[in-house]
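Sample 1 of the test manifest.
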Amino acid sequence: EIVLTQSPGTLSLSPGERATLSCRASQSVSSAYLTWYQQKPGQAPRLLIYAASNRATGIPDRFSGSGSGTDFTLTISRLEPEDFAVYYCQLYGRSPPLTFTFGGGTKVEIK
Amino acid sequence: EVQLVESGGGLVGPGGSLRLSCTTSGFTFSNYEVNWVRQAPGKGLELVSYISISGGTIYYGDSVKGRFTVSRDNTRNSLYLQMNSLRAEDTAVYYCASPAFCSGGSCTLGSAYWGRGTLVTVSS
């Protein structure tokens, strides 16, 4: 079973700073199925990035995704107050063998 | 407006059963793969089940395999989760999510719709 490990667990930054979040897979995965979600307290997750580097509809261009193989990155170029939240990567492997794994999450908090 | 509305959550004793429903509108449900995703209090996200657009392919997370059954009714634009033999560790908010749009034999992840979730509490 593929495991996604996100780091760091918590990122303490100030508004305006750059955030770099890591998602590492235990084995090579297709970037086509790597997604990133944002979740704020009391809310459902919101899709940010799909296929590793494509922004979902309505997502500001300060959010970007990159990576391939086992290492993927979500970057927020300049943190806005509304960006402080928890971020999850997910492998949505709908091709056999089916694999649907979430990473443990990275909390981006205000420093 | 896209809507996914979960219902059927509540308090149930260990060993009990619940049936969750997810009623959708505002998008072509029959073209979307759908998931149940849960989140225990203060914890991360866990995919509970996946069902393909036709219902022909189903996946369950290891922690619920053999106890939960997912189904969909494309005529009613609805998704269901029958949960049996419930345990304390099944306590969570259960979300209905439709992450993948399928057409012409291929699926893409560019749009993802989520409900607000329904709370399931397993406790005596």
